[in-house]
Amino acid sequence: MSIFSLFSVVMLLHASFATATRPLVQIPEGTKWNLVNNSIRQLETEPSCRTGNPIDDCWRCDPDWETNRKMLADCAIGFGHNAVGGRDGKFYVVTDSDHDDPLNPIPGTLRHAVIQEEPLWIIFDHDMVINLNEELVMNSYKTIDGRGHYIELSNGPCITLWNITNVIIHSIYIHDCVPAGNALVRDSPLHYGFRGISDGDGISIFGARYVWIDHCTLANCRDGLIDAVYGSTAITISNNYMLHHNEVMLMGHNDDFLADKNMQVTIAFNYFGEGLVQRMPRCRHGYFHIVNNVYVGWKMYAIGGSANPTINSQGNVFIASDDDSTKEVTKRESPLGYTEWKEWNWRSDGDMMLNGAFFTPSGQETPGSYAKASSMVAGPASLLTDIIPSAGVLDCQIGKKC
């Protein structure tokens, strides 16, 4: 690929993803310039609402998306596709962003909504910046749906999914999450307990299953942006925009926790953007389908792991930085080194490697070796440069296609 073509691809990806997301963070000057050019191009030719992204194509063409919010639950793909969230329950409207009581949550607050026993589809009645006092410990069968408003969760402890099932989190800006704890926190109307110090994750998934996190923007948390540990499985992480963070995603509790051998996670259509260092994701045990994502300029590595995870990387775009020491996409941690990890099944299938990026494969090449790490049909990597993709929180306006 020529230098000009490479530059064009990088600039197109930066501009396209930034245009489709609400400008929640300061945009670098180079991207601002491309935003202007991209807007002009869109005015010249009205783009189709069909993008080739099967999640977005399922619901974003509907101008009545606000009336038909729960249709979103039928649009999930990957290992978390059975996550129904609060689809079968009532709507709960959050009206109060200022009064977070971890022990006795006030009706109308996000905390009061997420601890209820029955399924709920949680929406908001105005733009909100929510600063929590303790972890937001959720109950099962809940959807947090921020579409139509600017919903920010920041500068405090954030979301915890602890031994629950069926959760959808959509269109929330989560950033600057910090540890908290040594406090009493309620997790249902009839139960509260003492919580130790949390890690400071954006979203912590602990022993949970059937989880779908879609179109969120996550940045600059104390620990991970999204961590899934302790036997969590049936998870899809899709269409998110992640930026300005060190250890982005940890998948797996520790090398000795064998229950994570059953973990299955799909990571699809995400944009791993500026200021990310490592763990996109970092995997232990389990099966990981990493498909149709865009990676831009990681500072250490993009995909890593230990304890023999199976990694199926398909149709991604990896754009290395200009630093010659960070061209490799992969990193393995093994006490025995190559003699051990050469047997781990890691493959790169149809990925686009730009600016010197390279993926080190290992293990078997047969498709059957990746059956448990296959969750959807991967589109070609060129799909991500031929369309106007979107990631992160969407600027959805009521009465219009989102």
Automatic annotation (TrEMBL):
One of its GO terms (molecular function) is metal ion binding. It comes from the Eukaryota. It catalyses: Eliminative cleavage of (1->4)-alpha-D-galacturonan to give oligosaccharides with 4-deoxy-alpha-D-galact-4-enuronosyl groups at their non-reducing ends. This is Pectate lyase. Pathway: Glycan metabolism; pectin degradation; 2-dehydro-3-deoxy-D-gluconate from pectin: step 2/5. PANTHER family: PECTATE LYASE 18-RELATED, PECTATE LYASE 21-RELATED. Its EC number is 4.2.2.2. It is an enzyme of class 4 (lyase). Belongs to the polysaccharide lyase 1 family. Keywords: Calcium, Lyase, Metal-binding, Signal. InterPro entries: AmbAllergen (IPR018082), Pec_lyase (IPR002022), Pectin_lyas_fold (IPR012334), Pectin_lyase_fold/virulence (IPR011050), PEL (IPR045032). Residues 1-20 form the signal peptide. It holds the Pfam family Pectate_lyase_4. Its cofactor is Ca(2+). The keyword Lipid biosynthesis does not apply. One of its GO terms (biological process) is pectin catabolic process.
